[in-house]
Write a structure and sequence with these properties.
The protein is α+β, with helices and mostly antiparallel strands. It is built from six helices and three strands. Bound molecules: FE2/S2 (inorganic) cluster (FES).
């Protein structure tokens, strides 16, 4: 069973949509189910600080994926990039007062899409990329490639 918070975010998602001219975009797929998420950020500089001034998402996935995506956008809006990267899967799940165990994997989309959007922003602005973020990015790229291969195989099987 989903908590009331999950259902609330699912029925009325916050920050749903796309940002034109986003400063960073994250695109991730979930290997377990094939669902996808896009996350867009706008970054504002305040002295040395870089703050997420706007954030939106598009999730093609289940109730838990939509609720966690929506929750993470609210949690990191107005935060510095560094702080936003510290938000974990468990933080997001806790903010929703839990997820059914079988749906825990769905929350990965939200944290990975955020990491990818920040990675994209840093790369576009020729900024140093923290080691942990680079590692996460390489892992996500590999997963996305595997997902693309699976889709291709599936399409080929449909054509036979
Ligand atoms: Fe795919 Fe939940 S079943 S993200």
């Amino acid at each position: 069973m989903y908590t009331e918070k999950v259902l609330e975010y699912f029925h009325k998602p916050k920050n749903l949509g796309k940002i034109k001219n986003a400063d960073g975009v994250g695109k991730v797929g979930n290997l377990a189910c094939g669902d996808m998420m896009y996350l867009y950020i706008k970054v504002k500089k305040d002295g040395k600080k870089e703050i997420i001034s706007d954030i939106k998402f598009q999730t093609f996935g289940c109730v838990a994926a939509i609720a966690t995506s929506s929750a993470i956008t609210e949690m990191v809006k107005g935060k510095e990039l560094k702080e936003a990267l510290e938000v974990s899967k468990s933080d997001v799940i806790d903010s929703l007062e839990g997820l059914p165990p079988i749906k825990i994997h769905c929350s990965v989309l939200a944290t990975e899409a955020l990491a990818e959007a920040i990675y994209d922003y840093l790369l576009n602005n020729k900024r140093p990329i923290p080691k942990d973020l680079e590692k996460k990015h390489n892992h996500i790229v590999k997963s996305n490639e595997m997902l693309a291969e699976r889709y291709e195989e599936w399409i080929e099987n449909q054509e036979e």
